[in-house]
Amino acid sequence: MIARFRSIFTLVAGVLLFAAAAEQAAAQVRVDISFKRKLYVMYEPLIATVTINNLSGRPLLLENSDHHRWFGFNIETAEGRIVPPINPDYALAPAAVGPGEKLTRAVNLTPLFPLHDFGLYRVKATVYVESFGRYFSSPPLAVEITDGRVIWQEVVGVPGADGKPELRTVTLLSHKLSRSTRLYVRIEDRERGRVYATHQLGQFLTFGRPEVMLDVDNQIHILQNTLPK
């Protein structure tokens, strides 16, 4: 019985030591992620700001190894479905972080991940440190992809790469945020399924209507009210 208690005590002590070592290792590199807001219009730039804080007390060289990429994101839907990157082998330059220093990167997730469904996404930034042989991840942060209300739309022709005309669908969207409503313009080629831009133009007053003009080259010009007067 005494031997049994000793073995149980040894097992528990080993688990506690392992947990303490894992917690200590995790504290050596802290990764944080932030977004400017929670709501985004589909296809607009989704900028994730990632901060890597080196608390290890020694210089760190962050670079790809044979089997690991040193920087990336884990994204999943509200249902827990993993969203794979469009190109998992995108090029990434190495980075050095001195002891006590922070490295900050702003990354546009829109061209990197197929976030083409409405709903909530949980995003984590991950950093692999070769000298520790492990990943460090940020706490998950939720963003929601929605779409705006169409207030104007037109299909126009533009010169193509081979000189033949191509069609572009130009759409004005209004999108209500927590404190204001914003005006967006989207340009897409619906025949090829391409969205070239979803760009925020600024604040939008819902009781007014923007004036839209297309010039001889079918370039769009928009006049909008941003203040009551």
Mean pLDDT: 85
- Strand percentage lies at over 45%
Contiguous helical run count: 1
Level of helix content? 10-25%
Shape: elongated
- Care to count the β-strands? 16
| Secondary-structure-derived class | mainly beta
Outline the low-pLDDT stretches: 5-26
Description:
The chain is mainly β and 229 residues long. The protein is 11% helix and 47% strand. The protein is built from one helix and 16 strands. It has one helix spanning 2-26, and strands at residues 29-34, 39-41, 47-54, 60-62, 71-77, 95-97, 102-108, 119-129, 134-137, 141-146, 149-159, 165-176, 181-189, 194-203, 211-214, 220-223. The strands form five sheets. Strands 2, 5, 8, 9 and 10 form a five-stranded mixed β-sheet that branches. A hairpin with a 4-residue loop joins strand 13 (181-189) and strand 14 (194-203). The protein is elongated.
Can you describe this structure in just a few lines?
The protein is mostly beta strands.
